[in-house]
Specification:
Elements (H helix, E strand, L loop, with lengths): L1 E6 L11 E7 L6 H11 L9 H6 L20 H12 L7 H11 L4 E11 L10 E9 L2 E4 L2 E13 L5 E14 L21 H8 L4 E5 L5 E2 L14 E5 L3 E10 L11 E8 L4 E5 L13 E8 L5 E7 L22 E9 L2 H10 L10 H6 L9 H16 L4 E9 L8 E10 L5 E9 L2 E11 L7
Antiparallel strand pairs: 1-5, 2-4, 3-7, 3-17, 4-6, 5-6, 6-7, 8-9, 8-10, 11-12, 11-14, 12-13, 14-15, 16-18, 17-20, 18-19, 19-20
Helix pairs in contact: 1-6
């Protein structure tokens, strides 16, 4: 997802090292109701989290919370989230360094947000009845970065979680990106723009486009590709077909820039390109913006996705090579192909909108991009997507599904790749290796329809065949 090129921007480094906000004390003690809400949303069936008898039989005084749930206890709740957002719309900020930083980023136009990295070290298990306190420090604010999502700044927070006696429970390094979407929605939406015509023949294509994927219809009898979609193959007349994913890379076959005559429904000039895709078919699409230079036949170009006037996600032409090779064109070896470790069973998860929303609410995360499809589209995304806390929780679940209730998770460090949008399948795989200190390091990779969603490294003990 990320490109590490930098460019000049306002100096935000003065915030580095400052206390982000006063210590935040959890509104509630760690409790079974919130734990069950979390475990049901993530389908985590570890009995130590919900079954008191099982917890006592395993040597615990009572049930404990999933380690990846630690940040949930100090989340502020929906009412405070709403109040903060209302103040943000009014251009106001709370009297904290972190709020001041967020307001400054808003003023610079970096209004969209996505978590990118989280590294948690679990010092102690957190039993029911614990009151959690978190202390936040702004550890870093990056210079302006160019990313696949858009230009923005990475903000890194360091967090320490303590119990009511000041005993350390966990530490965390959390990194988020505040960015300006690369394909921002067009400000001038006019009702006169004709709506898209969706039929039984092309519905699959629009469904894929809604997830930021460009697919091509393929005849399953003769293998010919065709576009635009149709009911039968123009080569062999077969009605049998499937779809393959395009890399979106190609060369410019032709283009036009329309100035006149003008229709009041559109903003002029209109730049339209005809792209020869690497797969051997052509596609017509608007340019993302009117190119200032580089328009010539045979020029390298590729497809990006943005929002149509009526809210749908559609492909747009952008000149030049993509920043990275799209996942469809570059398939990395699965973790099962690695050598020198124990291969974990794969876990495949179907995550629809309800599942994504339920998990976000269970972690007290009310960012609208995890709940509201229209708001997600306004922020440059085709649909709602998994929160980083949910992904972290699914990695934790994957580990204990394999290792069983006796597995002790000491740390999880993960980095997100492509977003995981509603309707995609997430497939987790893992490889476990012993370490010199007698613990086990587990590499976890999660892939979806678009590529690698998450890479994580966890340190655990009490794995199958191991004694603590």
């Amino acid at each position: 997802m990320l490109d590490t090129q930098t460019s000049d921007a306002g100096d935000l480094s003065a915030y580095i090292g400052r206390e982000a906000e006063p210590p935040r004390v959890s509104r509630f003690e760690v409790n079974e109701a919130m734990i069950v809400h979390w475990t049901e949303a993530l389908e985590d069936r570890n009995p130590l989290y919900a079954d008191r008898d099982a917890a006592r039989a395993a040597g615990r005084a009572t049930t404990v919370c999933p380690p990846a749930m630690i940040s949930t206890w100090v989340m502020s709740g929906y009412q405070r989230y709403r109040a903060v957002q209302q103040r943000r719309k009014a251009g106001e900020a709370e009297a904290t360094e972190y709020s001041a930083l967020m307001r400054e980023l808003d003023d610079l136009g970096f209004t969209s947000v996505v978590g990118t990295d989280v590294e948690q070290h679990y010092t102690a298990e957190v039993p029911v009845g614990t009151r959690v306190t978190a202390r936040y420090t702004i550890e870093d604010v990056s210079p302006l970065k160019k990313t696949k999502l858009g230009d923005g700044h990475f903000v890194t927070l360091h967090k320490r979680y303590d119990d009511e006696d000041g005993r350390e429970l966990a530490t965390e390094r959390f990194r988020l990106l505040r960015f300006r979407p690369a394909s921002a929605p067009r400000a001038d939406r006019r009702s006169g723009v004709p709506p898209l015509v969706r039929t039984q023949d092309n519905g699959f294509w629009f469904d894929a486009a809604a997830k930021g994927r460009l697919v091509i219809q393929r005849c399953t009898d003769c293998g010919e590709l065709r576009h635009p979609p149709g009911p039968s193959c123009p080569h062999c007349r077969s009605f049998s077909w499937d779809a393959v994913e395009s890399t979106g890379r190609g060369t410019l076959h032709s283009w036009t820039i329309v100035h006149h005559p003008q229709d009041p429904a559109f903003t002029y000039p209109l730049a339209v390109g005809l792209l020869d895709l690497d797969e051997g078919i052509r596609i017509v699409a608007d340019f993302e913006s009117v190119p200032e230079s580089g328009l010539e036949i045979g020029a390298a170009a590729h497809i990006v996705f943005g929002e149509h006037e009526h809210g749908e996600q559609l492909p747009f032409v952008r000149l030049g090579e993509p920043d990275v090779v799209p996942a469809a064109a570059h398939v990395e070896p699965a973790v099962e192909e690695c050598q020198g470790g124990t291969v974990l069973p794969a876990l495949s998860l179907e995550l629809d909108r309800t599942a994504i929303i339920a998990a976000a609410l269970a972690s007290q995360d009310y960012e609208d991009v995890h709940h509201d499809p229209s708001r997600a589209r306004q922020r440059g995304m085709p649909d709602i997507f998994l929160s980083i806390n949910t992904t972290n929780g699914l990695v934790s679940r994957y580990l204990t599904d394999w290792g069983g209730p006796q597995l002790r998770i000491h740390s999880i460090a993960l980095r997100l790749g492509v977003p995981h949008f509603a309707g995609m399948q997430l497939r987790l795989t893992g490889l476990a290796r012993s370490t010199e200190d007698g613990r086990t390091e587990v590499e976890v990779v999660g892939r979806n329809d678009a590529g690698v969603h998450v890479r994580a490294t966890a340190v655990v003990s009490g794995t199958p065949g191991e004694t603590e």
